[in-house]
Write a structure and sequence with these properties.
The complex is a heterodimer of chains A (325) and B (291).
Chain A lengths: L1 H17 L6 H26 L7 H17 L4 H23 L5 H20 L1 H4 L5 E2 L5 E2 L2 E2 L3 H24 L1 H11 L1 H6 L4 H27 L1 E2 L6 H14 L6 H15 L7 H15 L3 H13 L17
Helix pairs in contact in A: 2-7, 2-10, 2-11, 2-12, 3-4, 3-5, 3-10, 4-10, 8-10, 11-12, 11-14
Chain B lengths: L1 H31 L6 H17 L4 H29 L3 H22 L15 E4 L2 E4 H23 L1 H11 L1 H6 L4 H27 L5 H16 L4 H21 L7 H13 L14
Antiparallel strand pairs in B: 1-2
Helix pairs in contact in B: 1-5, 1-6, 1-8, 1-9, 1-10, 2-3, 2-4, 2-8, 2-9, 3-4, 3-8, 5-6, 5-8, 6-8, 9-10
Classes of the chains: A mainly alpha (325), B mainly alpha (291).
Chain lengths: 325, 291
């Protein structure tokens, strides 16, 4: 299974690198969007899949990140500085938001984050002096690194892909550190984790803040990718969509967000042949998918491969989902 | 002062409608752990059932009855059998995603199969203005208030005074114990879904003349129900009623006296304050934590 996983990963990486040479402009835009949304979904997966907290604010953090970068670059900041700023700001806001919400348990974080998303939307829409209200901000410049301009669609895709690789590697490393183990312990059994001396509240907060920060960095890529940001893009719809990606891919699986984001970006496009009905078909497909594989697509694959190898003697398995792709 | 009374009455009227929606919402949560993100669309849809029936030639009262009946069957029975039952064993989260998808589905269905334009909707009573202590109050608000309060009162009697209602409450509060006491728990859960179908249909009839029949109506209403249920207390029917009324009144007053741009923000701020100070809601009970 593990070797199979490595092969699948290698094949996917090659496809991701080669794909833009075979796609037209809109196709490249879509896969760039996939890379950006995957980063945001990885962040949400950290909060949801590993620390077990439902957040409906990831879309808002993407928005905060996007606006931060758009405004700072307009003010003449260099893109890398604005990028770091977006991540740091979302980390701080995530920390501030989670701090009170995590006093109480379970679905309350979902409600507080839901309210937060709507508040962010209202601020973005109403504070016209800062955000230009419903007219949005256009033309965020794509960065230039050491003479390599990411202005073209394909160049910018590679920039997004590179950031995705970098950030997912960082997340991978973090999940292997004592921190990551603590996150898992939180999800599996918070009370036991507490009795083992883990400061559960601080770790939950940490997971939430890091997850939010990834959302902000995704936003920092979103603004130069789309070149037009407006409050409506970052409403509840986007938060729901990101949640959908994490669940469809398989929450708690490291590669879940990659698969989920791919489905969420491509499925609406593939159902476009149904003309005006494509959202209808999309919604129906999501419901069917949830009914048949509630643990997500990777959960389904895991179940199938387990069923196939049942006859062979299996080595005792450490129960930690997400450690094997 | 006159405008205050006026605002208060219309606020109470919207609040009472919110309360109806929120009660259904919290009943579903209590009996089946369903957080119904499509509750707003559930309110949007019956209005289209009624319009379709009227287009087929039915008078308003008959169309309203057909609308309520369809709503009970589609949004109560079918929702439970097709969507909730198969998903329930997988836990809360997949069901949340499924109801989010359902809300999109219903919205698109109303748009694609009926109309994307806002449709006028008949009012319960002819719109005239009454003079109450110098304030102008529309008959429409009063009619809404009367019907909504009547429904809430009937619901209260059903839940508190009848054997059926008490069985439903027992099911909501402690299914295991209810089963031991011989209450048919599954049937009670089904009744809750049917009851929700009735409540959303009534709310739909009351609110649609004000908002017009639009496929996007559900967004605002679902959020209101959600907030009302949490502010009042997620696990208490009384809480949902109180939350709905607070929300309606506050919404109207704050829009005029504080800021109309941020009218949507005040309920959210209250929500955050409630969660911080009284996490189980104004009237709710604290939920126990199990190891």
């Amino acid at each position: 299974m593990n070797r199979l996983g490595v092969i699948a990963l290698g094949a996917a990486a090659i496809v991701a690198i080669v794909a833009p040479f075979f796609l037209r402009r809109y196709g490249i835009y879509l896969i760039s969007m996939w890379a950006v949304l995957t980063i945001a979904a990885i962040g949400l997966n950290l909060t949801l899949g590993y620390a077990g907290q439902v957040s409906l604010a990831q879309g808002a953090f993407v928005g905060i990140g996007a606006y931060t970068v758009a405004l700072l670059t307009q003010a003449g900041w260099a893109y890398p500085a604005a990028f770091v700023c977006a991540g740091a700001l979302c980390f701080a806001i995530g920390w501030g938001l989670g701090y009170p919400a995590l006093r109480v348990q379970h679905h309350y974080l979902a409600f507080v984050t839901l309210a937060f998303t709507t508040l962010v939307f209202l601020v973005l829409r109403n504070e016209e002096w800062l955000t230009n209200g419903i007219y949005g901000i256009t033309g965020t410049e794509r960065p230039v690194f050491f003479g390599w301009s990411t202005g073209g669609a394909r160049d910018f895709y590679f920039f997004c892909l590179g950031m995705l690789a970098l950030l997912s590697a960082a997340t991978w490393w973090m999940l292997r550190s004592p921190w990551g183990r603590a996150f898992l312990a939180l999800r599996e059994n918070p009370i036991r984790a507490l009795s083992l001396g883990l400061d559960t509240r601080r770790y939950t907060l940490m997971a939430f803040a890091i997850g939010s920060s990834l959302g902000g960095m995704a936003g920092a890529l979103y603004a130069p990718l789309v070149q037009f940001i407006e409050p409506n893009s970052f409403g509840l719809g986007m938060s729901f969509n990101l949640l959908l990606m994490v669940i469809i891919g398989g929450s708690g699986y490291f590669f879940g967000p990659f698969v989920g984001a791919l489905v969420a970006v491509l499925l609406p496009e593939w159902t476009r042949f149904t003309e005006g009905y494509y959202l209808l078909v999309y919604a129906a497909l999501v419901m069917i998918m949830m009914a048949f594989c509630p643990s997500g697509l990777l959960g389904l694959i895991g179940r199938m491969s387990k069923a196939m190898t049942r006859r062979a003697p299996t080595p005792p398995e450490l129960h930690a989902e997400g450690t094997t792709p | 002062m006159e405008s205050f009374i006026q605002l208060l009455v219309s606020g109470l009227a919207t609040g009472a409608i919110y309360a109806l929606i929120a009660v259904g919402f919290s009943l579903l949560w209590q009996t089946s752990q369903t957080i119904n993100f499509a509750q707003g669309e559930f309110v949007m849809l019956p209005a289209f059932f009624i319009l379709a029936a009227m287009n087929a030639g039915a008078p308003f009262w008959l169309a309203a009855l057909i609308g309520i009946a369809l709503s009970v069957v589609v949004l109560g029975l079918l929702f439970k059998v097709i969507i909730v039952d198969p998903m329930l064993k997988h836990g809360v989260l997949p069901l949340v995603i499924s109801t989010i998808a359902l809300s999109l589905f219903l919205k698109e269905a109303a748009k694609d199969f009926y109309s994307s334009q806002a449709q006028p909707f008949p009012t319960l009573v002819p719109a005239t203005d009454l003079d109450v202590f110098g304030a102008v109050v529309s008959t429409q608000s009063l009619a809404v208030l009367v019907v909504a309060i009547g429904t809430v009162a009937a619901l209260h009697v059903l839940l508190q005074k009848t054997r059926l209602g008490r069985s439903m409450q027992a099911t909501a509060q402690n299914p295991t114990l209810a089963r031991i006491l011989g209450i048919p728990v599954e049937r009670m859960v089904l009744y809750t879904f049917l009851l929700n179908g009735v409540l959303v249909a009534i709310a739909s009839i009351l609110i649609t003349p004000i908002y017009l029949a639009k496929f996007t109506n559900g967004e605002v209403l679902g959020m209101a129900a959600f907030l009302a249920a949490i502010i009042g207390g997620f696990n208490q029917v009384r809480g949902a009623i109180l939350g709905g009324i607070i929300l309606g009144v506050l919404d109207n007053l704050s829009a005029v006296y504080i800021s109309s741009q941020y009218r949507g923000a005040f309920p959210l701020l209250i929500l955050i304050a409630v969660i911080l100070l009284r996490p189980h809601g104004l009237l709710g009970r604290a939920e126990e934590r199990t190891v």
